[in-house]
Amino acid sequence: MPDHPDHVLDLPPTQVWLMPERAVFEPASGTLFVADVHLGKAAVFRARGIPVPHGTSGETLDRLATAVTRSRATRLVVLGDFLHARESQSSTTMAALAAWRDAHPHLDCVVVEGNHDRHAGQVQATFGFRTLDGPWVSGALRGVHDPAEASVPGLWTLAGHVHPVVRLRGRHDTLRVPCFWLDERVLTLPAFGAFTGGFEPSLGDTDQVFVVGDRVSPLPRQTPR
């Protein structure tokens, strides 16, 4: 699909789209997956006396709205770390989340509990999100927060937590960009939040990396990384 921004990835017996919004969509079930949204992270930094820009949660929710609209998803599964910390529950962040939810009233929303969710408080229940303290499983896909969790034979695991990025090298400089990382039967999603760091995974010979930009593109094996 050379003129399409998404990359179609076969995970037999299903198929998913890797989206430049940093989301994964399974057309067969209408399910959109994102990981590490970290809403209100900038508010946490400011509450702790660290000056950082405003507006990152709004940017994150706008991109989530775009992914939902473009995919026509009927279900959203957040693979952990929906909020960043308890201080994320600022009036500004909560108002933005309420407005986003009002714009998508019929979307079935699920949060697979991540390490930050256990400290941030499950405010998502106020906005009609269900929270799971274990994996989300449907069909051939299994959603968890931490990719280190043991895989299940016959299922493809979708995960987050580590915020994978890849370093692209040019003649005179380098650039770190978010990526999808497929390691055997585990697909790790890039951090969805606009204000997050990144981890460069150590790649094995059979690992596949898909770079996120205006479109999602497989990283050629010959590209240095």
Structure description:
The protein is an alpha/beta fold and 225 residues long. It has a single domain, classed as Purple Acid Phosphatase, chain A, domain 2. The chain is built from 4 helices and 15 strands. The protein has helices spanning 41-47, 56-71, 91-103, 117-120, and strands at residues 7-11, 14-19, 23-26, 31-34, 75-78, 108-112, 129-132, 136-138, 141-143, 156-159, 165-169, 174-183, 186-188, 208-212, 216-218. Strands 8, 9, 10, 11, 12, 13, 14 and 15 form an 8-stranded mixed β-sheet that branches. A 7-stranded mixed β-sheet has the order 1-2-3-4-5-6-7, with helices on one face. A hairpin with a 4-residue loop joins strand 11 (165-169) and strand 12 (174-183). The model is unreliable at 48-55 (pLDDT under 50).
Topology:
Elements: E1 7-11, E2 14-19, E3 23-26, E4 31-34, H1 41-47, H2 56-71, E5 75-78, H3 91-103, E6 108-112, H4 117-120, E7 129-132, E8 136-138, E9 141-143, E10 156-159, E11 165-169, E12 174-183, E13 186-188, E14 208-212, E15 216-218
Parallel strand pairs: 4-5, 5-6, 6-7, 9-10, 10-13
Antiparallel strand pairs: 1-2, 2-3, 3-4, 8-9, 11-12, 12-13, 12-14, 14-15
